[in-house]
Amino acid sequence: MAIPTFSEAFRQGKVPATPIGQWSHAAAVTPHDSTDIGTIPTSAIFVGDAGTVTAVMAGDGAAVTFKCVAGQILPISVTRINTTNTSPGTSIVALW
Protein backbone atom coordinates (compact mmCIF):
# COMPACT_ATOMS: atom_id res chain seq x y z
CA MET A 1 0.00 0.00 0.00
CA ALA A 2 1.45 3.33 -1.08
CA ILE A 3 1.74 6.13 1.44
CA PRO A 4 -0.27 9.15 0.24
CA THR A 5 1.38 12.53 -0.22
CA PHE A 6 0.36 15.31 2.17
CA SER A 7 -1.90 16.82 -0.54
CA GLU A 8 -3.63 13.50 -1.16
CA ALA A 9 -4.11 12.89 2.57
CA PHE A 10 -5.57 16.40 2.97
CA ARG A 11 -8.06 15.81 0.12
CA GLN A 12 -9.05 12.49 1.67
CA GLY A 13 -9.80 14.22 4.98
CA LYS A 14 -6.98 12.49 6.84
CA VAL A 15 -5.25 15.77 7.70
CA PRO A 16 -7.25 18.31 9.70
CA ALA A 17 -7.67 21.77 8.18
CA THR A 18 -6.24 23.56 11.20
CA PRO A 19 -3.33 25.94 11.54
CA ILE A 20 0.04 24.37 12.25
CA GLY A 21 0.46 26.52 15.31
CA GLN A 22 -0.93 29.31 17.37
CA TRP A 23 1.38 32.21 18.05
CA SER A 24 0.84 35.19 20.30
CA HIS A 25 3.92 37.19 19.28
CA ALA A 26 5.53 38.21 16.01
CA ALA A 27 8.51 40.38 15.12
CA ALA A 28 10.27 41.31 11.91
CA VAL A 29 13.69 39.69 11.55
CA THR A 30 16.79 41.39 10.19
CA PRO A 31 19.24 38.67 9.15
CA HIS A 32 22.67 38.91 10.79
CA ASP A 33 25.56 36.47 10.97
CA SER A 34 26.26 36.93 14.69
CA THR A 35 23.27 38.65 16.35
CA ASP A 36 20.48 36.37 17.60
CA ILE A 37 16.79 37.17 17.02
CA GLY A 38 16.06 37.54 20.73
CA THR A 39 16.40 35.89 24.10
CA ILE A 40 14.15 32.91 23.29
CA PRO A 41 14.04 30.74 20.15
CA THR A 42 11.21 31.04 17.66
CA SER A 43 8.36 28.55 17.37
CA ALA A 44 8.23 29.19 13.62
CA ILE A 45 9.23 31.71 10.98
CA PHE A 46 7.12 33.25 8.23
CA VAL A 47 8.90 33.87 4.92
CA GLY A 48 7.13 36.58 2.93
CA ASP A 49 9.12 36.41 -0.30
CA ALA A 50 10.48 33.49 -2.28
CA GLY A 51 14.17 32.76 -1.80
CA THR A 52 16.62 31.07 0.50
CA VAL A 53 16.75 31.44 4.28
CA THR A 54 19.68 30.24 6.38
CA ALA A 55 18.49 29.56 9.92
CA VAL A 56 20.55 28.66 12.98
CA MET A 57 18.67 25.84 14.69
CA ALA A 58 17.96 26.25 18.42
CA GLY A 59 18.70 22.62 19.31
CA ASP A 60 22.20 22.10 17.95
CA GLY A 61 23.25 25.48 16.54
CA ALA A 62 23.56 24.11 13.01
CA ALA A 63 23.04 26.57 10.16
CA VAL A 64 20.54 25.11 7.69
CA THR A 65 19.55 26.68 4.38
CA PHE A 66 15.92 26.37 3.28
CA LYS A 67 14.57 27.18 -0.19
CA CYS A 68 11.22 28.84 0.44
CA VAL A 69 8.19 29.94 -1.52
CA ALA A 70 6.46 33.25 -0.82
CA GLY A 71 4.14 33.08 2.19
CA GLN A 72 5.68 29.92 3.63
CA ILE A 73 5.66 29.16 7.35
CA LEU A 74 8.55 27.03 8.58
CA PRO A 75 7.62 25.40 11.91
CA ILE A 76 11.21 25.47 13.17
CA SER A 77 12.82 26.66 16.38
CA VAL A 78 15.70 28.99 15.51
CA THR A 79 17.90 31.48 17.32
CA ARG A 80 19.15 33.45 14.32
CA ILE A 81 18.68 34.03 10.60
CA ASN A 82 22.08 34.45 8.96
CA THR A 83 22.75 37.08 6.32
CA THR A 84 25.06 34.64 4.51
CA ASN A 85 23.04 32.52 2.04
CA THR A 86 19.76 34.31 2.85
CA SER A 87 18.24 35.98 -0.21
CA PRO A 88 18.27 39.78 -0.06
CA GLY A 89 14.83 41.29 0.41
CA THR A 90 13.32 38.13 1.90
CA SER A 91 10.70 39.36 4.38
CA ILE A 92 11.05 37.22 7.49
CA VAL A 93 8.89 37.30 10.63
CA ALA A 94 9.68 35.39 13.82
CA LEU A 95 6.66 33.74 15.48
CA TRP A 96 6.47 32.57 19.09
Count, helices: 1
Please tell me the total number of domains: 1
Strand order of the biggest β-sheet: 1-7-2-5
The dominant shape is globular
Low-pLDDT residue intervals, each spanning 5 or more residues: none
| Total count of strands | 7
| Class derived from helix and strand content | mainly beta
Tell me the span between the first and last alpha carbons. Answer: 38 Å
Let me know the average pLDDT: 86
Radius of gyration equals 15 Å
Strand content: 25-35%
Give the biggest beta sheet.
Answer: 4 strands, antiparallel
The string of secondary-structure elements, in order, is: HEEEEEEE
How much helix, percentage-wise, in residues? under 10%
| Oligomeric state of this protein | single chain
Explain what you see.
This protein has 96 residues and is mainly beta. It has one domain. 6% of the residues lie in helices and 33% in strands. The protein is built from one helix and seven strands. The chain has one helix at 6-11; strands at residues 26-28, 44-47, 51-57, 63-68, 72-74, 78-82, 92-95. The strands form two sheets. Strands 1-7-2-5 form a four-stranded antiparallel beta sheet, with no helix packed on it. It has a three-stranded antiparallel beta sheet with strand order 4-3-6, with no helix packed on it. Strand 3 (51-57) and strand 4 form a beta hairpin. It is globular and about 45 Å long. The termini are far apart. The mean pLDDT is 86.
Quick structural gist:
By secondary structure, the chain is mainly beta.
